[in-house]
Design a protein that fits this description.
By secondary structure, the chain is an all-alpha fold. It has helices at residues 3-9, 12-55, 59-69, 76-81, 96-115, 119-151, 156-212. The radius of gyration is 27 Å and the shape is rod-shaped.
Length: 213
């Protein structure tokens, strides 16, 4: 069945479900393409940025040269968080290593929220698209059988065509869900690898700064 035939023979509800699946598909592929490019760049920059930071002769030089390596600001927010004045606030109360733990944790969470953006879209598309497609199939079969029952002609050859057309919605739903689930898993794995490196850097940075006091 061609797209034109589906458009002409489907009712408003079936077209609405098809548009929902189309929207989920477009959103999923946009997120996958954008995040794949972003995470590939971040995954390459983070090790180089960490190496450049620790190879610098002193902290000021490390801070100055970090922007040249950290194009997507994955490490810079952590370093900047340790430079914020905390005196006169509750955040400045307590021991130095406790202050650093708090500020680095907050900065790390902010970076990870940015890297994880779009994962909800992929998870939503992967979880609901098959059910939207199945709903479209059930609705199409119901309409086909109702129409044939009203016409008084219920034969196998007359059922096969409408039922086959309705099953296209199930295939469409799976075609949306499978790339979304694969993208979610692959991108999530990359985010996990980056998160582990950032956590290690934050731990080492806290040790460096806490030891200087």
């Amino acid at each position: 069945m061609s797209l034109a035939d589906f458009w002409l023979h489907s009712d408003a509800f079936s077209l609405f479900l098809a548009l929902v699946l189309l929207g989920l598909s477009v959103a999923s592929w946009v997120v996958i393409a954008w995040k794949w490019r972003l995470l590939r760049r971040v995954q390459a920059d983070v090790p180089r940025s960490i190496a450049a930071f620790w190879q610098a002769p002193h902290l000021t030089a490390a801070r100055e040269q970090l922007p040249a390596f950290d194009r997507d600001r994955s490490l810079l927010p952590l370093v900047e968080a340790t430079e914020q004045p905390l005196m006169g606030t509750l955040a400045g109360a307590g021991l130095r290593h406790e202050q650093l733990t708090r500020t680095l944790r907050d900065a790390l969470h902010e970076v990870l929220r940015r890297l994880q953006w779009g994962q909800t879209v992929l998870a939503t598309a992967g979880s609901i698209a098959p059910f939207v497609g199945l709903l479209g199939t059930v609705w199409g079969i119901f309409n086909a059988l109702t129409g044939m029952a009203e016409a008084g002609q219920l034969t196998v050859d007359k059922i096969a065509g409408p039922v086959g057309e309705a099953l296209v919605m199930t295939a469409f739903g799976l075609g949306v869900a499978i790339p979304a689930v694969l993208g979610y898993n692959l991108l999530g794995r990359r985010i996990g690898q980056i998160e582990a490196e950032l956590e290690g850097f934050a731990h080492d940075l806290r040790g460096l700064l806490a030891g200087k006091d």
